[in-house]
Amino acid sequence: MTLERISKSYGDRRVLEELGFEVGEGELFGFVGSNGAGKTTTMRIVLGVLAADSGEVRWGGAPLDETTRRTIGYMPEERGLYPKMKVHEQLVYLARLRGRSARDARRATDEWLERLGVAERRGDEVQKLSLGNQQRVQLAAALVHDPEILVLDEPFSGLDPVAVDVMSQVLRDKSAEGVPVVFSSHQLDLVERLCDRVGIIRDGRMVAVGTTAELQEHGEARLLCRVEDAPDGWADAVPGVLAREGDLFTLAPDADEQDLLRAALAAGRVREFSWRRPTLTELFRDVVTGEKA
Predict the structure, then answer these.
(1) Measuring CA to CA, which of 42, 142, 245, 274 is 20 to 30 A from 174?
(2) What CA–CA distance (Å, rounded) separates 183 from 31?
(3) How crowded is residue 101: how many other Cβ atoms within 10 Å of its Cβ?
(4) What is the C-alpha separation between 251 and 45, in angstroms, rounded?
(5) pLDDT tier at 293 (50, 70, 90 boundaries)?
(6) Which residues form the ABC transporter domain (predicted)?
(7) What is the DSSP letter of 176?
(8) Coil, helix or strand at residue 14
(9) Residue range of the domain that includes 205
(10) Which of 80-84, 131-135, 163-167, 216-220 has the lowest mean pLDDT?
(11) Structure confidence by residue, pLDDT tens digits, 18-54
(12) 204 in the same domain as 140
């Protein structure tokens, strides 16, 4: 799936500015940004809920049309289910809307409710479920028609660690089947572990795209130096130390890290000494707010 130079405005407010990225078959793509950056607007344009002012969304080399969009599995950030409708009845209904036979719809519903751990709630109204179980049912609704593309807006919101593991495995399995998966999340440690590539959006523009390793190449490496029982200020006189945050040191480009190591050995027992690239959370902070990680 390819998004090419997508722009969208509401009056004088520019929401998306020539935004573009590509998600290959079987790729897990993390789409991250601050609140209001344009993530949900982008997803709604992919789905055809909103029309772009300019640009194009393509799949298989052709523009997405109504028929193609019916093959997309979408999970909105806000709850999109009928609250007073029973879980199993609702999922069967949604699967049939997407073209599945009654038999296939019931079978797929049973399979996904079992796999997502909510089979015992099949006869309950959605409004009577916990927020986490509603989220599981919402994912089942995106999957019951066997989608060719998955677009998920904050799918991990409100989930406990066990449910996060279940949902993560589902996304891995779908990508292994060749399904492109695009999801947004504020849980950047999870995005870092799960995704093949990450795109960071700021003020409607895509400002960074790549694997975590590729993005880290543009981040500032810091030296992790953990010293046991060292006195306060043990590194204050080390030449080339520009900044310190706990056990992380930022060195000048021409600094010799061996100076820091010698000072550390003199101060106490060195438990760890290694260069460390920024995490995705630190990269995100740097890119989105301008603060250095």
Answers:
(1) 42
(2) 6
(3) 10
(4) 45
(5) very low
(6) 1-228
(7) H
(8) strand
(9) 2-211
(10) 216-220
(11) 999 999 999 999 999 988 899 999 999 999 999 999 9
(12) yes
197 belongs to a structural domain: yes
CATH of the domain at 149: 3.40.50.300
Residues 118 and 228 in one domain: no
Strands 28-33 and 54-59: unpaired
Domain boundary among 211, 235, 250: 211
Pairing of strands 13-22, 2-10: antiparallel
| Terminal-residue alpha carbon distance, the chain | 32
User: pTM of the full predicted structure?
Assistant: 0.82
Residues 239, 124 share a domain: no
Query: Cα-Cα-Cα-Cα dihedral of 46, 48, 53, 56, to 10°?
Result: 50
Are residues 129 and 249 located together in one domain of the fold?
no
The per-residue DSSP string of 33-71 comes to: E-TTSSHHHHHHHHHTSS--SEEEEEETTEE--HHHHTT
Q: With left for phi above 0 and alpha for psi between -120 and 50, is residue 8 left, alpha or beta?
A: beta
d(CA 68, CA 50): 16
Q: Which tokens is 143 given?
A: 């999957």
